[in-house]
Amino acid sequence: MKTFCGRANPTTGAMEWLEEDENYDYHQEIARSRYADMLHDKDRNEKYYQGIRAAVSRVKERGEKAIVLDIGTGTGLLSMMAASAGADFCYAVEVFKPMANAAVKIVEKNGFRDKIKVINKHSTEVTVGPDGDMQHRANILVTELFDTELIGEGALPTYEHAHKYLVQEGCEAVPHRATVYVQLVESKRMWAWNKLFPVHVEAEDGEKIIVSPSEMENCPGVPSVCDIQLNQMPSSDFTVLSDVVTMFSVDFSKPVRSASTCYRVQLEPVKSGKAQIVLSWWDIDMDPSGMINCTMAPYWVKPTSSFQWRDHWMQCVYFLPNEDPVLQGEKLCLTASRDEYSLWYKLQKARGEEENKSDVRVESPVCRCQAHLLWNRPRFGQLNDKSRTRQYIKSLMKVLKADSVCLCISDGSLLPVLAHYLGAKQVFTLENSAVSYSVMEKFFKANHLEDKIKIIEARPELLASSHLEDKKISVLVGEPFFTTSLLPWHNLYFWYARTAVTSHLTSDVTILPQSASLHMMIVEFQDLWRIRSPCGTCEGFDVQIMDDMINNSLNFRESKEAEPHPLWEYPCKSLSDPQEILTFDFRKTVPQHCLSTEGSVNLLRKGKSHGAVLWMEYHLAADISISTGLVQISNEKGNCEWNPHCKQAVYFFSSVTESETLSDLPSAVTYAINFDTKTGEIAMDFKLL
């Protein structure tokens, strides 16, 4: 049997459905899963263990048998905790078959075969009774079904069903309750992920301002949560406008309702400002008294506690539908609406009790301007980055002439507008999709440029002279940026597009960027290494079968692959200097042969070589370059600052070498990199010397 998997094809700039071995999908799921991260989350595991011990004791004190239902068991960890805490029997439910198979083996290896039954079903399909999956209803409900938003993985409907059909009334639950907290802030940096700010261009005939269409200005954006490592957001990047308030709680020991509802709280700003963002996180109490608490609160809320790093639960950023000025001390009403899987917020001036009650539930935000469908949040941030825009303006001023005929190839880019304002005689832009065509059309209209810039909705290889009004292109520009790109080098699609339009270019065409280069550096991560690090034992239980399973899935492809991560959220220090390892000359067409390089990079600092980080730099014009990766190494310790609008590629080394002293350091890392021009993919191999 075969399975179809979506993959970006860097040679066509399109998502393509590839036939893969039927195991591929599940290997991807396991290889990229967060199981290792959860098993390394010591705080989570210890608190669950304490909560489970306490729940089993409470049931035993009542003289009852402790029967546990563990929904979403994963490795079987929580069931093994319950069994070793004295539970009489555990039903461990896991819907993902490869995982359920692993849980059976792990449970057996740890000696709990007689105490734990693994059920490979969705919990809503589990049956109870003499011939059922469970003999009786359970009196202890243990789950870990939460994501950063708490309810995004379907915790509410799962609990609702379990209380109706699988557990006894008045059962114990671990966790016992969850509480969601919110805080109102103003943040230009985060607001720039949701709205496009005006762009100022100094042209020869005065200053021009590029503005957004009004429907984009007033668009609430997309409802999907923006989950980030808020602990990496410096306090200088936001202003707190309110105290932290409790938005709502869910008691898991009682019947849970998943039906859509809303919650309201009164707020009084502690400072005047622009209300733009609701920051949110949750905590869970593992016991009824709230003595065993596991919290996701960011650093400025609980500065004293020692932080547990985790990537499976972070913090949420919600964008209010529009920014509103608020005054210190005025009474406001914040509404959180939710359906079964997601939350969204609305802020209003507080009114009389009666009026507030009659307020209907706020509808889920829907993007009507399409820009939020075309550009993701980092892309908005990138388009709002003034210093980046300045580099493109400087480069365009160097290359544009009064008779320049310009073609832009990038998805939903402001370059065509910049080229027009900076004096190009004629500007064409190639848009690859109906959405980008529509967004750019609205954009040009809002700036009265609809008759100045021509949008062509065609693939580069289908570009005809008639599209270009029989003109030849003298300046070809790209950022380059394409919405299908996942890894830094996928934007090399620009080179393939440039090759496809060669016949439409003048013989002395200027290409901007003129070239690109791939860069690499060896790093030690503060925490990100945990997501790929074997666990061995977890709270005294042997989970090596899980390690082997993840490893097997990572090695399922002959060559391990680099994976994209936004490194501004994941601190690391450089162990080597950054090194340029491959160059791509856009002035020439894509060659038929592969581009390969081998070499070594010296390690200059002591530390653990967790992996290599790779990124692209684009050389726009003489002396002007843009990096999608390293911005700077900020001190002698090697701490790195990364481009916040792009994901960098991380290649984790399978054997992490630790060196405490410089003498026993691996002195260098050798690399072999191969860019396959037929597929647009890069294969890589590293060895520690």
UniProtKB/TrEMBL annotation:
Keyword terms: Chromatin regulator, Cytoplasm, Differentiation, Methyltransferase, Nucleus, Repeat, S-adenosyl-L-methionine, Transcription, Transcription regulation, Transferase
Main location as per UniProt: cytoplasm
Function: Arginine methyltransferase that can both catalyze the formation of omega-N monomethylarginine (MMA) and symmetrical dimethylarginine (sDMA), with a preference for the formation of MMA. Specifically mediates the symmetrical dimethylation of arginine residues in the small nuclear ribonucleoproteins Sm D1 (SNRPD1) and Sm D3 (SNRPD3); such methylation being required for the assembly and biogenesis of snRNP core particles. Specifically mediates the symmetric dimethylation of histone H4 'Arg-3' to form H4R3me2s.
EC number(s) per entry: 2.1.1.321
Top-tier EC class: transferase
Name of the protein this chain belongs to: Protein arginine N-methyltransferase
Superkingdom, natural source: Eukaryota
CDD domains: AdoMet_MTases (cd02440)
Lineage: Eukaryota, Metazoa, Chordata, Craniata, Vertebrata
Domain Protein arginine N-methyltransferase: 176-348, 514-672
Alphabetical list of PROSITE patterns matching this protein: SAM_MT_PRMT (PS51678)
UniProt keyword Methyltransferase, yes or no: yes
Molecular function as annotated in GO: histone H4R3 methyltransferase activity; protein-arginine omega-N monomethyltransferase activity
Gene Ontology cellular component terms for the protein in this record: cytosol; nucleus
GO biological process, one term: spliceosomal snRNP assembly
Reactions catalysed according to its record: L-arginyl-[protein] + S-adenosyl-L-methionine = N(omega)-methyl-L-arginyl-[protein] + S-adenosyl-L-homocysteine + H(+)
UniProt organism field: Strigops habroptila (Kakapo)
Subcellular locations according to the entry: Cytoplasm, Cytosol; Nucleus
Family statement drawn from the similarity comment of this UniProt entry: Belongs to the class I-like SAM-binding methyltransferase superfamily. Protein arginine N-methyltransferase family. PRMT7 subfamily.
Key word ATP-binding present: no
